[in-house]
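Fill in residues.
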């Protein structure tokens, strides 16, 4: 009797672990809803922004361009490094929570023509060069 009970235990532990993993994934996905200043609903205009695949502290482009109006930034982080996504300048200061590997989308409504910066503001990342220009025409 006792032995039978012990055999079931690993299965229970496995199910508990799986359950916790599902909960953890759900939490991570929730962060895609955006951060301060971003809205969750994607719009037609997409700008792809990619963090360095090797985990270097930079975006893969030094300059990004968009047309004035609503913009969805599709932010890819192929590296295991954690980053965040910030659009600042020209009266805008929108920031996301930190994220690990994966793709996040962040939308800004009514972006005016002008010059902005796309930055990762995790400690030391901007200083190391994780800052790019965003030109909105
Ligand atoms: Cu970063």
């Amino acid at each position: 009797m006792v032995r039978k009970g012990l055999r079931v235990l690993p299965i229970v532990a496995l199910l508990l672990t799986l359950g916790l993993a599902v909960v953890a994934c759900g939490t991570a996905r929730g962060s895609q809803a955006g951060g301060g200043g971003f809205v969750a609903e994607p719009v037609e205009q997409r700008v792809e922004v990619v963090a360095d695949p090797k985990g270097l502290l930079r975006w893969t482009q030094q300059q990004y361009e968009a047309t004035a109006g609503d913009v969805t930034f599709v932010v890819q982080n192929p590296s295991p490094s954690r980053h965040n996504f910030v659009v600042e300048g020209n009266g805008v200061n929108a920031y996301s929570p930190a994220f690990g590997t994966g793709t996040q989308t962040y939308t800004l409504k009514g972006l005016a023509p002008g010059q902005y910066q796309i930055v990762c503001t995790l400690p030391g990342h901007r200083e190391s060069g994780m800052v790019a220009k965003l030109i909105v025409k």
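The two ends are 75 Å apart (CA to CA).
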